[in-house]
Here is the input.
Amino acid sequence: MKWMLLIFVFGAAPFKTDLVFDNLDDCLKAEATMREEYARAYNEWLTWAQANKAEADYPDSDSSCRSGSAYRRAGLAFLTSDRAQRSSGAA
Here is the structure.
């Protein structure tokens, strides 16, 4: 059995990552890494947006970023079988 990481963008739209793990712990670590990277990218954008308010349409764009994807993005690990992975062409 394998674990696959799937994320939900805006809280509802599933996005297949094609990331498959041998155990749940590794899958959850990958999900935590994904969240950390998203937070890093958002904070980098926020620094730029605050320095370039007109170009970034800041602060209006910040509220849409916060309400749109920053707080509604969730990862989900689910169990999948080796047979399903082989039939879909995944490793």
Q: What stands out?
A: The chain has four helices and three strands. Helices lie at 24-51, 53-56, 60-70, 82-88. The longest strand covers residues 13-21. Confidence is low (pLDDT under 50) at residues 84-88.
